[in-house]
Queue: 2 jobs
Job 1
Amino acid sequence: MKNTDIRVIPGIISIAIILFLWFIVEPPQGVTANAWHLLALFVGTVVAIIGKAMPIGAIAVLAITLVALTGVTNDKPSDAIKDALSGFSNSLIWLIGIAIIISRGLAKTGLGNRIGYYFISLFGRKTIGIGYALALSELVIAPVTPSNTARGGGIIHPIMKSIATSFGSSPEEGTSRKIGHYLALVNYHSNPITSAMFITATAPNPLIVKLIADATGADISITWGTWALAALLPGLLCIALMPLIIYAVYPPEIKRTPDARVYAKDKLANMGPMTFAEKIMVSVFGLLLVLWAGVPAMIFGAAFAVDTTAVAFLGLSILLLSGALSWEDVLKEKAAWDTVVWFSALVMMATFLNKLGLVTWFSGVVESNIAQLGVGWMISVIILVVVYFYAHYFFASTTAHITAMFAAFFAAGIALGAPPLYLGLLLAGASSLMMSLTHYATGTSPIIFGSGYVSMEHWWTMGFIMSVVNLTIWGVVGGLWWKVLGFW
């Protein structure tokens, strides 16, 4: 029986690359054989992810197996399997997994839809107001929705489509430009911005925290509160400008939408008053944000600090005890368990590439090439970030992109004299903002692009425009904000 999960050609290419690097290419000077062989497995894994040779979780299992069997991290078989499974002990991985499970409550209770329709009932007099309502809805649920695909594609997009349809705007009838074209672009471009604003807003963000800590010998450990505070000003500015910029470039035919508020209010009326489960969800979200932001520690001292992952487990426990989520809901949240598996594999490989000296070697190559230009660290950082950012045209996965390039570019920037925390925060923002570029940049993009409201030409044009705006704001406004905060 044919396995539809397997794509043969990308799989063959991935295996060929592993064999070529392992057996044909000699390790460069200064790189050990084990480090080079792990790189071969790593590159093959990334290529398989990009080519979607198998589901990413299945690829991760194969990667773990190969690391354990080949002994590239340790000659002792018993230690090699421990190394291969070491990623599962990383608390940040469980933070994302548990947060994804918690976010299931948004859909189950209907709270996500209620938030969206509430904002539309407030700001829906004009089309641009609906745009801001969609963006604000994204922003509100982002801290507790680590799947940017579930947030933008699964919660906000259906609301956006229902609004567009109510105004007679649909791709099938050739009326996308009435209002749906504009709202679809706002729906999508909210997603990269909100993903950049919180550690828990997209799954790869904790990987970035881990890579930064590893590269600096744990001298820099970015907390949930630090990330949120750093991204607050540039993120809000991007959210504020984005609907206006899209409106200026691709104005909708319908400018005023008085019926949208009525439509949203009718939807809210049909939903009725908030249920007990919704109230529990709101309370848990509030508790998570307070504890993740470190408020108790700020008020009562460091003795009252709570680990971020422990807070996520606390939130899930409350939802289970109250009945807002059942254990069956937990077991059914396939995305969470899938994330734990593939995330663990990638974190494990990235960790040992660093331990075996491969990242140091590659960052040295990047650093020496930029150093030859004879420019200061600021220009060097611009070069590094621009190359890192626009390389995403060649990636269909932010996770693969971050895993492949982040550590080396971060280490190279530090070697060129960049302040570590400034560089780390800038690259961290870029790692989400680069989702804006293409219709295959992240899981959210094919969902919204696939609805047919926006042509590929308009998608790529708007993506490039917003990439320049967002990256400039993060680098300039964000940089000044971080200077005021004393981060560099």
Job 2
Amino acid sequence: MSSSAHRDTGHDHATSGPGPDRLWSVQDHLDDVLSTVRPLDPIELNLLDAQGCVLVDDVTVPLSLPPFDNSSMDGYAVRVTDVAGASEEFPAVLEVVGDVAAGQTDPVAVGPGQAARIMTGAPLPPGAEAVVPVEWTDGGLGEGPVAGMRARSLAPEGAEGHVHVYRPAEERAHVRARGSDVRSGDRALTAGTVLGPPQIGLLAAIGRGTVRVRPRPRVVVLSTGSELVQPDEQLASGQIYDSNSFALTAAARDAGAIAYRVGAVSDDAETLRSTIEDQLVRADLMVTTGGVSVGAYDVVKEALAHVGDEDEPGGGVDFRKLAMQPGKPQGFGSIGPDHTPLLALPGNPVSSYVSFELFVRPAIRTLMGLPDVHRPTVTASLAADKALTSPKGRRQFLRGSHADGSVAPVGGSGSHLVAALAHANALIVVPEDTESVEPGTQVEVVLLG
């Protein structure tokens, strides 16, 4: 994988030209990520293993569903002429010639003046033209209309004797026609479909035990910082709980990935390099959070800035500044023998999560082979008590609550405000050339839920 620092996508930048002083636009950084990440190779998986994966090929129906005419009710299979004019005062009395159960391969034939007791899903027997629900009959008991079908073991009269039918039935009444769901040769599913429970059910229904998909990408999330403590442990002075790795692992799973969370790594470059190398065996994408700025303990930058792929000159991770708020410091590149993509996100919780939504989620969706990798965006009216301010030259992403065509800011602009993020369902986008947005203005909104 060639170094992303040496590519120029041809877009305008706040600071033009490659190099450490270049200020990348949000779009250019995203383009750089998506031009490097490639969809995973297809594999054949058993149906349940394919849940959440993206279908590679169109699936054609090999047999019609249902494959035969069958009953949609428990009742009696009859000929239409035999029940014409039937009423409670003058019921049609038919000879019951047998039972037809679901899965039965040799159903009895129904002749003139006859009926067969039939169960839901059972094939319509030869000679029958309709099904009368059992509630329209005496159930073979001779005691007036019944409420339902009795179990065969409790109803020795079921397949014998006579049944009184109190209502007429039109031809094909309560009959599911062969191919009424899908017909042989129809396209059941289109390439690019994410396989959820209904799609897997359809594949099973048409006899497919395996399916060719792009697998769900494996994403390893790793946070850095000696101050980070696992939740449920005791905090010492100067320590905080590690929330980023939990939020990003959950976000990766929400995006469709199989995500693994690695406990926080201390601020030691060698330890970090070793941990990342150990994790590469199970990663299609690595995500780190923290340690990408210009501080003395920014360990990710120290550990990875000069690490390249030995067999491909120019590989490694490029650390850059983006014209955005929050999330100015970012890192992107590849690492390890398989050139595994790595995105290094800032450590402030909001910066980290916003960066994930803008860059990591689209990368995951690209690995999955999805045609649309981005969150939906809409325009909405800004509901605020006063104008929103934004730094010149930066694209700002503010947490917001969106509903019914309007969006209201949630919390302040601080990149540490985790509680506000938890109550937001959208990001309000303020463009680079806008320094103030008045209430009532139409703004772009990225929908998060």
